[in-house]
Please model this.
Amino acid sequence: MKTDVVKPQDVFYNPTRLLVPLFQRPYVWSRDAQWEPLWQDIVRLIEVISRHNDGATHFLGAIVIQQVPTALGSLPAWNVIDGQQRLTTLQLLLDALHGQLERRELLSLAGRVQALVENPADNRDRVEDRYKLWPTNRDRSSFASVMAAETPIDYGTLPASRLRDAHRFFSESIDEWLEAGDDVERRARMLVATVTDRLEIASIRLEPNEDAQAIFETLNARGTPLSAADLIKNFIFQQLPEASAELAYHSYWAQFETPWWEAEVTSGRIKNPRASLFLWQWLIARTLEEFPIREVFTQFKHYVNTVSKDVEALLPQIRAAADRYRLLIEASEQQVGPLTRAQLFSYRVNTLDSEIARPILIWLDEPEQAGIPASDRERILAILESWFVRRALVKAPSQGSNRFMVDLLQFLSRREPSAVAEALEEYFVANHVAVGYWPGDDEVRAAVSGANAYGGYRRARVRMVLEALEDARRGYPGAHPLAMGPIVRGRATIEHLMPQKWRQHWKADLTDEQAADRDRKIQWLGNLTIVTQALNSKVSNGPWVQKRAHFLASDDVLITKDALLLVGDDPWDELAIEVRTDQLVDEILDLWPAPAGHVGLVSNSARDARAFVDLAKLIEGGILPPGTQLTGPRRSKYDGIEAVLSRDGRIRIGVNSFDTPSGAAAAVYTGRGAVNGWSFWRIFGTETTLKDARESYLDRVESEAAVEAP
Model:
């Protein structure tokens, strides 16, 4: 290794070729961040030299180049290991300067500059030997077009690129600066001398056998940071023979440098290029180890050095996995038409922002898992989807989810292919820690019933759940779908059946407490539906008769039709919302089931054991005394029904007694579907429901537990 401080004159004067390897990223410098600051530094340097310090210089930074063995008589060649952005910018600046000098017929000065951007004709064996610097393959055509353009350059005829724009910026800046004084030739001499001999570069030159990769990684912190994909690409192609590197690049890697793979994707709160995110997820699926994305390059090197030592054989594996990955994501983003089970899973889980599912999907598609039966794959996806959706509905904590998924992969990888589906279910059922448990029916029901579904969850998640309920009615996914097809995904609008602005057209004689109760219930799941074409405000906020007529005449959403059937000719009210909420929760539990009897998280918390609080406990706890009179919901046709709470915790209506609130409600309720008795029954003369009384009991128990805790 030789380190020197050199000038552009030293770097570019002798016949040479500075080759930017194909695995380097393309030119990314920009006007605001690099071109303009560089030009301003040059102008200030000229002023400093002219006014008070004729020995002044300006340091540009460092470059690392490695000598490339060449045939006798060929141009000396160097690979640019680091500093390609800086060297490319200097070449564009020098060529723009040459053009402005040539246009003014300052031929002697122009010749001095031309010698720094072009090799003499007698030294060229190939067309590209003309240029002192030859960029990475993605930039070659743009670079050659602007560097070979005749003076004066018509930039509008050149292909759009950062290289063209940089050349144009420097050309226009030089033109403006030269014309700003009376003596153009004197200013030109000052500019040429400053650019060629007063800019300084730290040049690190490596011998052919030195470890360029180590230097590259050490210097990566400077300039524009490289992504994990950039670092991995550099590492892979440094190890391939030059004869096969370009073919391997085009066959297996070039796709990662297209807009789809370079797009920024959010994972958690961090954005990464999709290519880097994929490589991280793929490597987790291959190694079955957990590590943060910032370590993916280090982990990849370790994987290559210890497991898959043949990078040439590894590239086709990465390409095949990447093709499957892209196909699945792009298919899942299609808004119209049926999806495969995997595509539907990908779409639904994506609405939950659960990138942690990707390593499992990658793992399932790797060759080692080819023996898993197709029916088991469907079951695996159904189990995983239930786990993700149920946890989202109960707002289970996500901290530690990546570690949990890796543990799960390790567990599944030890099972025979025919046993993976069964093992997955067993793993979820047996897990009783917050980070990985599978919420049971009671917890999901408690979380969703009475919850602010519209404002308490992300809108895309609520829409996905409503879409899934609608598709289930249409037979998707399934063996006997309806001809109408699945609902359009991701475009439907969430609509309130009873509008949020109910006070204008849905007036009622309500107390302040009752109005507040209505304001809460209009946000419940049972008051929500989806419409494929957003309703205008007149219909959306209009009276129920008008809104109902619109839905009957022009809406094809089946979950809306079912809501209309629920009330028939009766008005849509709070009781209808309660009943429909219970119905939809039942359907959610059927759509994303857990095994029969599964209870989810085992906890001593009274609130986690909500389903085991019965009326007898409320009597025992002094919340409700025996003989409490109950009646139906306010302003409903059930308001006035007489029921009495017995000492044994049963509800007596006339001569009949019922063990549960829902059983008692079902005995008098004449509407369609099931009814939640805890919400149905209220204490006579008050607005307090049995559900409110149960919440009071749970609050007191939890407060007492907190006081007793050490």
